[in-house]
Amino acid sequence: MSSVWEYANPKKFIQTSDRVLPVIAAMAVLCLVTGLIWGFFFTPDDYKQGSTVKIIFIHVPSALMAINAWLMMVVASIIWIVRRHHVSALAARAAAPVGVVMTIIALATGAIWGQPMWGTWWAWDPRLTSFLILFLFYLGYIALWAAIENDDTAADLTSILCIVGSVFALMSRYAVNFWNQGLHQPATLTVKTDSNIADVFYYPLMVSIAGFMLFCIALIVLGTQTEIRARRMRALMARERMG
Amino acid sequence: MMPDLGRYAEAVLSSYAVSLVLLVLLAAISIRRARRVKRELDAYETRLRRDRG
């Protein structure tokens, strides 16, 4: 019986991910192209928001991925702290640039959408503010990895930063629920199906979310492979220097 | 084929443009770095094996 911990072996991780990566990447492109074309070309205008509703097919998936990438980093960081598997620390490191781009997309599309709907590009609203803080945490996390030469020390310190930042990742998701104030609308997708958006927007949004999710997974797997190889290179060079 | 976006055309089109540019850039940079690191590691390991004879 194989265990998930087998993939903590860098060689095994690279072998397996080499096989699945092309499939994930192809599915990501297919879902992204389908979701965005469907959303942009084949959905009607909203009775209140007009054609700006089409921004939902980018804004919601990117915001979701920005938060999920951080939560994935938290899980990987906890695994690193508890079990000291290098692959998990490197997977967290690889997820950060993906997460930061998702956060930028969510913030940029939110601002562009907010201007015609709210009359302002930005408001110090609970969700927007916690999202901005999450973005700063992403930058801090990437900078901390880059600033520390010893990989294990960097993994330790960034793991702690990641766990602390999880407060803002969760706040970004739930701020609209427990702070009944601000400009941002309540969650677009909830477990209560009757309060979700209309089906005509819901289905292309689901395809787009699947596309963004697969796209992020593909890039995180690729990034993890790259980090594993870069770490091996650094280890070999250090060994050679020591004779 | 192009939907009529009315007075919000600028907002919708710029949202899609910014996002697609960022997604393509992210993918391109990730793939390029992955290829470079793999190539460098392969070359380094080959050189180490050759040096050890």
Outline the structure in words.
The complex is a heterodimer of chains A (243) and B (53). With 243 residues, chain A is an all-alpha fold. Chain A is 77% helix and 0% strand. Chain A has helices at residues 10-41, 56-83, 86-118, 126-147, 151-178, 199-241. Chain B is mainly α. Chain B has one domain (6-52). Chain B is 83% helix and 0% strand. The radius of gyration of chain B is 22 Å and the shape is rod-shaped.
Question: How large, in whole angstroms, is the Cα Rg of chain B?
Answer: 22 Å
Strand content of chain B is under 5%
Which parts of chain B are unreliable, with pLDDT below 50 for 5 consecutive residues or more?
A: none
Highest-level CATH class of chain A = Mainly Alpha
Give me the oligomer status.
heterodimer
The largest sheet of chain B is: none
In short:
By secondary structure, chain A is an all-alpha fold. Chain A contains 6 helices and no strands.
List its traits.
heterodimer, A: 243 residues, mainly alpha, Four Helix Bundle (Hemerythrin (Met), subunit A), 6 helices, 77% helix, B: mainly alpha, 0% strand, rod-shaped
